[in-house]
Amino acid sequence: MANLTINGKSFTLDVEPDTPLLWAIRENAGLTGTKYGCGIAQCGACTVHMDGAAVRSCGVSVSEAEGKQITTIEGLTSEGVLHKVQQAWLDNDVPQCGYCQSGMIMAVAALLKDNPKPTDQDINDTITNICRCGTFQQVRDAIHAAANA
Amino acid sequence: MNQHVTPQLNRRAFVIGTAALGGGLALGLDIPFGGPQIVRAADGTPEVNAWVVIRPDDTVVIRIARSEMGQGTLTGLAQLVAEELACNWSKVTTEYPTPGQNVARKRVWGDFSTGGSRGIRTSQDYVRKAGATARMMLIQAAANEWKVPVAECTAANSVITHSPTGRTTTYGKVAEAAAKLAPPADVKLKDPKDWTLIGKGVKRLDTPDKVTGAMIYGIDIKLPGMLNAAIKDCPVTGGKLKSYDEAKITGMKGVKKVVAVDGTAVAVIADTWWHAKTALDALPIVWDEGPNAKVSSASIAQWLAEGLDSGPAYVGNENGDVKAALAGAVKKVEAVYNYPYQNHANMEPLNATALYTADKCEVWCGTQNGEAAFAAVLEATGFPADKCEVHKVMLGTGFGRRGQTDYVRQAVQIAKQMPGTPIKLLWSREEDMTHGRYHPITQCKLTGGFDADNNLTALHIRISGQSILFSLRPEALVNGKDPATFAGFNATGDAVIGYSVPNLLIEHSMRNPHIIPGFWRGVNVNHNAIYLECFMDELANAAGQDPLEFRRKLMKDHPKHLAVLEAVADKIGWGTDAPQGVYRGLAQLHSYGSYVAAAAEISVTDGNKIKVQRIVASTDPGYVVNPAQVERQIAGSFVYGLSGLFYGGCTVKDGRIEQTNFDTYNSMRINEMPKVESILMPSGGFWGGVGEPTISVAAPAVLNAYFAATGKRIRSVPLRDQNISFA
């Protein structure tokens, strides 16, 4: 059993302490917006926020996440209003297949919290998520749009 | 050693696949159409026709037969229908008809297959006709209601107007009456110059759910009582499952059942996938690795190299007498290139969910070919078509891999062993990486001959290596030859070589290692474009000529090829000085009906660290339906192609693929990719593809720039094997 706080809600989940947070979120809490891509913290599709910092949830155990505030893509929208990163993604038509974009958006939301006006170099240094569709130019444009929103 | 894999013909898949190739052939499945006169959508709204449903509130539902996997086809196809329908674009939504419905309605929606950059170009005529037909019926219904001649009525933006009186009504109000009318026999499509929606970069229709996490991919399917399965197939293709020690994992948390699948794989079924995977990893499995257990990359390379000089070969394109011309050449240039296996590495690992009962089977999955997935369900169950269904969902990319149905078949085989319980099969990334349908492996020897005036008089290209069709679609071989291996090298058709050489011979020595090949975005043009376009640079260098000028002389008879090449050369500033330390490379190719070219600017530090500074890419696909999406496809194809060039390459050891995850099979990140400056130059009169053609020129443009920078010619992919990386 583990007690997790996800998107401000308390969950008591029947999972072992070493279960990756990703699978607790997807299978036990039922929030499937967070995606499985590699399981070894390489691709970033599973990125969520833990106490406001972007983490790759496949590489974090449930026991490490207990007592922390977890935010997933579903929790980024507040009372039906899109987060400015989501809005910029919509305005710039960023996603192609969209599968990696939950993680991409979460990584960018964390970046903008720490660095409200990132340069292209800041983006290069921070956003390391894989996108096999290769929608990188739209990601870059939308980050700048969100920063200026 | 290397075995020729004998393809296993799947009878039902063959029937449907053949019908799909024929485009209109009757299916070998006899389902009576029946039903009421008016066909109604699930919500009761009548269909104006199979492609168009209009609700009383004027919502326009456009049926999309092809699959959306990120390439934008769903939006583009809707634009094609809506252009002719003259409907209000802001009221357009889409839905997928199911493969089962398509069978039941005698393939009213045609081909579902989504590959070969065909989604739009091979359905544009009939979907536009569907829109025009619906528009005419809606106008007729309004005219009937008003008792006025139909010629006095016009439609725009979902509003029908009776011009003499100014009376108006909407599509939603007359849709029910329109659905009862017989479709007109004579339907005239708009002249392209009158298009207002086609050619416009409207936003995608499927974005909102992709930014909130609400979009459902196959991996996200949830059904009541559903269990989850993890699978391991024999690591060596051609091997079998010998035994497994189930006792070692009984009692592990959540585990429900362990099952063998098709004699080659074992799956653990559990309450959650994490439990299933954890138990599977703990399960002792003994494999019979079969006859291919000793095959290695080295043994494959040696076998392919033998094919460069000896043995039979299929001729793909020939004119003049190459052997005589080379014998009489004043100067000869020869080079050997190679291209490796590549994994699709779809972001979403393969998965399918199946529910099997005693007399019915349903599957939910992302698939590039709903009809092939449906055929796989029929084959795996033995059920008739009216007892099976496939529900298509969004694909977390496909790139050709999801046109295959192995994962669908597995899901059904697992579900059959637990009737009544829906089971979601998900491959781990490691399973996905090691059981791909890989970009085929080839080598190529190219020989060019010059006369005394440095004119290219002979070109001999001999490819040695794997055929995709041999393994996956043997019925498409032509007297044993795989025509697809000559993509970009043909004399005629939609993938024509852009150079006229008086003596030309292009041939293929087919050698099929046991690794199963597949259609990997771009398919055979990935290697063919490197072979041809890097070698053209070598020939230009040998002739002491500028690469553009050298090509131009050979392209007189190929004005469309030349036009796209000149467009990128012009934009990148070819012939003018590049910035200090920056070097340029060019490439062009014709494939999937489209003419494409690229120019790259790179800088190189320490001789082996490449920074791609600029990419200019052009395409002439005949018509551009949505320029915003075409630009995204071009840029994305460069990410995919350059990832394969720099980071890709799957190697074989002890009969199995060695790369297991993104740590050993990496993909480009945002910091490595410059903005792609695209030039869309549709010349009209033909329909070419978009998703794939431009990937072909990504690698050769960069490799040619690398030669310009270093004087070193790279003839082997991936670059990581040559200690070359991104800066």
Task: Give a structural overview.
The complex is a heterodimer of chains A (149) and B (727). Chain A has two domains: 74 residues, Ubiquitin-like (UB roll); 64 residues, DNA polymerase, domain 1 (Orthogonal Bundle). Chain A is globular, with a radius of gyration of 15 Å. Chain A is of the alpha+beta class. Chain A has seven helices and five strands; from the N terminus they run E-E-H-E-E-H-E-H-H-H-H-H. The N terminus of chain B is likely disordered. By secondary structure, chain B is of the alpha+beta class. Helix content of chain B is 28%, strand content 22%. Chain B has 18 helices and 28 strands. In chain B, helix 4 crosses helix 5, helix 10 runs parallel beside helix 11 and helix 17 crosses helix 18. In chain B, strands 10-11-8-18-15-16-17 form a seven-stranded mixed β-sheet. A five-stranded mixed β-sheet of chain B has the order 13-21-20-19-14. At the A-B interface, helix 1, helix 3, helix 4, helix 5 and helix 6 of A face helix 6 and helix 17 of B.
Briefly, what is this?
With 149 residues, chain A is of the alpha+beta class.
What layout of secondary structure does this protein have?
The complex is a heterodimer of chains A (149) and B (727).
Chain A: E1 2-6, E2 9-13, H1 21-28, E3 47-50, E4 53-56, H2 62-65, E5 69-71, H3 73-76, H4 84-91, H5 101-114, H6 120-126, H7 136-147
Parallel strand pairs in A: 1-5
Antiparallel strand pairs in A: 1-2, 3-4, 3-5
Helix pairs in contact in A: 4-7
Chain B: H1 11-22, E1 47-49, E2 52-54, E3 60-63, H2 73-85, E4 92-95, H3 99-104, H4 124-146, E5 153-156, E6 159-162, E7 167-170, H5 171-179, H6 208-212, E8 227-233, E9 240-244, E10 255-261, E11 265-270, H7 273-282, E12 285-288, H8 297-306, E13 314-319, H9 322-327, E14 331-339, E15 351-357, E16 360-365, H10 370-381, E17 388-392, H11 406-415, E18 423-426, H12 429-434, E19 442-450, E20 456-465, H13 468-472, E21 503-510, H14 525-542, H15 547-554, H16 559-572, E22 583-591, E23 594-605, E24 609-620, H17 627-646, E25 652-653, E26 656-657, E27 676-680, H18 695-710, E28 725-726
Parallel strand pairs in B: 3-4, 8-18, 16-17, 20-21, 24-27, 24-28
Antiparallel strand pairs in B: 1-2, 2-3, 5-6, 6-7, 8-11, 9-12, 10-11, 13-21, 14-19, 15-16, 15-18, 19-20, 22-23, 23-24, 25-26
Helix pairs in contact in B: 1-10, 2-4, 4-5, 10-11, 14-15, 14-18, 17-18
